[in-house]
Amino acid sequence: PLPPLPSQPHLHSLSHTGSVTSAKNLPLPELPNTERRPSSPRLSISLSQSSLLWRELEDVRYSPDLELLTEDQRRLQEVRFEVVTSEASYCRSLDIVVDHFVKSKQLGQLLTTQDKNWLFSRLADVRTISRRFLSMLEQRMESDIMRFTVCDIIAEHCPRFRCVYVPYLTNQSYQDATYQKLMNGNPGFKQVVETLEKSQVCERLPLRSFLVLPFQRITRIKLLVQNIVKRTTPGTEEATHAIRALKLLEKMIRESNESISQMKNLESLVALNSKVNFECKTLPLVSQSRRLVREGAITKLSNSLKEPEKSIYLHLFNDYLLFSVPKEGGRFTVINHYPVTELCAEDCPVKLDTLQKNLFR
């Protein structure tokens, strides 16, 4: 089971400069009447058939400008076109998961507010961002279907991608655990989910496949931009936009990974904090800046034959070292703790008649 969240600021509520969460303050783009504008007739086929190639579009196929493009330029347009069509397909899938699952009254009656937040995270916000992104891609494509570009739009949207994708990706462990908990322990939830999954709108795809879409999408956009960078003439304006977009996407993915690590570390601190008792002065273990470096049992050597050896368990954090005595049920009694700045370790120049490891005096 997941440990309860600590009474500490959530990772995404921190506001220190340059933090992963600073983008949370960015306003979400507003769409007229909260609906994405309909696709133009020119794009209706491409958006309904994601396997269609750019060169197969009627406006492209019969354009006299097609013969003026080199094969490399045509391949570059195909990659740009794939950015648009794959985003359209992604938005359709987001519509399904939000409208069919997130807004399901049957599911809503079975979920607590906490479970719903952990299970669906910010999917509605992800959809809002993606709709606006797709709308701008469509407008750009309509303006010049033969030579449209996309990387400047991607770069422009990266700050807004960041404000929804970083929290969503960070929530993954809670999302997975919540889903498993509900499927195994809530028969009503399992029944409703399986019923919803049988709907034709899901196209035989399970809920889990929709929940992982944001993870897959941000990676795919990065791969498409990498392909554009390779095919774009160096030194051109489009190359500059492509390189900038790629760097922003890589930074966002890196920040997401760091945020995931921070969340997992926080979870481990919360779990450990529930297992320790202090015989000495209490040390609050849960801290945003603290991380567990290493832990394990060691044996304290006696100074005489009469004194028995003592087993001690160490928890080494980046800022403190805890000395504990293991108890039943995986619990620990902390007998002392020291700041790491006050510690030093030295080799013990004593000949030992034992092969036992992890000894100290």
UniProtKB/TrEMBL annotation:
DH domain mapped to chain residues: 75-259
GO BP annotations listed: intracellular signal transduction
InterPro entries noted in UniProt: DBL_dom_sf, DH_dom, Ephexin-like, GDS_CDC24_CS, PH-like_dom_sf
Molecular-function annotations in GO: guanyl-nucleotide exchange factor activity
Keywords: Guanine-nucleotide releasing factor
Pfam families membership: RhoGEF
Chain intervals for the UniProt region annotation (Disordered): 1-43
One GO CC annotation: nucleus
CDD domains xref list: RhoGEF (cd00160)
Superkingdom field: Eukaryota
Protein's UniProt keywords contain Membrane: no
Name of the protein in question: Rho guanine nucleotide exchange factor (GEF) 5
Name of the coding gene: ARHGEF5
